[in-house]
Amino acid sequence: MNIFINGHQFDLNNQATVADALSAFLSKEQQKLSFAVALNSDFIGKDNYSDTALSAGDSLDVLFPIQGG
Amino acid sequence: MSLTIYGQQLNNRMLIGSALYPSPEIMKNAILASGSQVVTLSLKRQNPQSQGGQQIWQYIQDIVQQHQGYLLPNTAGCKTAKEAVTLAKMSREIFNTDWIKLEVIGDDYNLQPDPIELLVATEQLIADGFKVLPYCTDDLVLCQRLYDLGCQVIMPWASPIGTGKGLMNPYNLETIRLRLPNATLILDAGIGKPSDACLAMEMGYDGILLNSAIALADNPVNMAKAFALALEAGEQGYVSGVMQERQTAHPSTPTLDTPFWHHPGA
């Protein structure tokens, strides 16, 4: 199935979870960085990455700290 | 010179942004020169291959840890309550703080906060345990509603973000101070020069939040010091009791026994 991560299309298997999507998007080193996730504009906590299933067309946002005012 | 934010006493009245500096090193030195203990930052999509954001994040963490400071994540770019609530929850997880500078923008031209969405988001976030610092317009009734919802800190704008126009509506700002004597009022956005900060403090505001005025100065580090001095001057002016303005001139020098003139027949 196709999902979107930060607006880019990814092809994942039909049983994929948020954790699987993050593995496709980030290297193991990058997964150690500070980031947070939203699925279809709803916050998903780190503890729920592995048990949150994805559906075709889902949109995942992976956000990182940046400077701000 | 102290400021209390949700029970946390700070030894400085400036909250400072981390964006727009010429370099990370200048950002760090400017923040240190300001004396501020509260640094704002944000969350955005990034290419994970890019290390730029991570470097800034590391810098900010170092500054905050070295000076027992605090992070204040914002919800910049959000246009609905739902977006802002989601971003606030993401920020709480990453930054391990329940403080949130709540921004919900209603107009792209002047980045004016949307008061309706702001109130909706504030109510939801407070119910979820957040300590909300709302960025809002200088509308008294909006500020009152935010206070009634439980915002101990309210942050009306001086003028639109990044304009440097200073205090556009001093009457509105003074009225908010007068009508909400127990709220912690922080003037946020539009501050351009140190005298703006001084004026806010002379009005009895509790602090300021600024970014562009320092980051875009020719010498950001020196400008940070200037703002720190202006805050100190304004606060001392406020607590010292400013004289009443008068409509007519009054000579400062005693007029008794004035020589040479006012002679009869002269």
TrEMBL record, chain A:
Highest rank taxon of the organism: Bacteria
CDD domains named in the record: Ubl_ThiS
A Pfam family assignment: ThiS
Listed InterPro entries: Beta-grasp_dom_sf, Mopterin_synth/thiamin_S_b, Thi_S, ThiS/MoaD-like
Protein's name in the database: Thiamine biosynthesis protein ThiS
TrEMBL record, chain B:
Entry keyword set: Cytoplasm, Schiff base, Thiamine biosynthesis, Transferase
This enzyme's EC code(s): 2.8.1.10
One Gene Ontology molecular-function label: thiazole synthase activity
Annotated metabolic or biological route of this protein: Cofactor biosynthesis; thiamine diphosphate biosynthesis
Chain intervals with Polar residues compositional bias: 247-256
Superkingdom of this protein's organism: Bacteria
Residues that hold 1-deoxy-D-xylulose 5-phosphate according to the record: G162, A189, G190, N211, S212
Subunit structure: Homotetramer. Forms heterodimers with either ThiH or ThiS.
UniProt name for this protein: Thiazole synthase
Subcellular localization: Cytoplasm
Occurrences of domain Thiazole synthase ThiG (ranges): 4-254
Active site (record annotation): K101 (schiff-base intermediate with dxp)
